[in-house]
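Tutorial handout. Part one gives the primary structure; part two gives the three-dimensional structure as tokens.
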Amino acid sequence: MNKIYTKIKEWGGKEIMFLFIVAIVFSALLIVEKEIETEKTGVKAEPTFVEGTLVKASDDPAVYVITGGKRKHIPSVQIFESRGYAWNNIRTVSRQELEGVPEIKLIKTTGDPSLYYTDNSQKRILKSDEVFASYGLSREDAFTVEQEEIDAYPTARLLKRADDEKVFYITNTGTSRHIPSAQVFESYGNKWYNIVTVTHEDLVGYPINSAIKLRDTNKVYWLVAGKTTTKKHWVASADAFNRLGIRWDQIAPVNSVEFNTYPEGDPIRYDDIIVETPTAPSLSTDQQKIQDALSRGVATNPQSDILLKDSPDYQIFYIINSDVFLISILNSNFFGIRVTAENDLWNLLGVSYTTLCELNVQITTPRYVNASLAGQVYPVSTCP
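Part two.
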């Protein structure tokens, strides 16, 4: 300080010295005023992060990059280093400061209609407009990334609602099964910190997994939830297996800890299904629902093909001769409207998810609407 004082005297004497002192006092007053304001409100000023800033919270190893005024999670060391980022450039801030910056959670990649929601460093596909709305999102909010970045996120397997302590496991085929106890949860090596809290609309979008078998065995059991406990029932015949609408690829292998948790009920035979499993999808019931839906449609030609839904964005027909439910997309946003039309067909028919996936549903679009997609036939997007 003495050196600065001496130098100022050499430059110009009292006038410069006076201005220098004023500047120091003014700066000190600003600092004091800021500290007083912070003490009064308990809130620090929001930090400014320029484009490309690397930032993390002091209590969390997750690193983010600032893009477009928002923070985007960097999912792996490989992604971090492949982007040319430097570890010594990461800025550490408080949790409060970090959460003051909106986070990019909805991502997609070019050429894939799937939209992924990232949370707790994991990803899952959002399947309907109702689910998007439950998070306050729309499809237009999706941020485009490279496929390797999506692949770097593990798929979320453990889900729960905010208002319910029940935890559900998401199987490889996209069905959900309630984990009956903490002992079962931990027997699979699950970690409690990997549980992701989701909305009701998101969770109910996963069909229930009712068909299980003990690992390394072939006997198939059907889970039936009662008021106080869930029982397992051996599916005792091929007829019962088919009537329940079970698909081999949707039978979940479970370990002995979970298998032994369920008390064993009476075997299920063909004639017992309605009595033993009143909530199980009955093929005959679904067939009746389909007939009822077709009776409400409008015949469109001499072959009596039936128009089930006519909207500006899509039409749904039932083609009698080929037993096909045909969805024609009439909007250039093919993949977005496709999901809406699929859900509409499901609601119109009122059948189980298993039965919907067993129907011959073909989704197309005319050339004048989507020239690059015309001539191709697509199935229901959420079916295995």
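Part three, for discussion. Residues 1-9, 34-38, 272-283 have pLDDT under 50 and may be disordered. The chain has five domains: 2-41, 54-104, 106-203, 211-280, 285-364.
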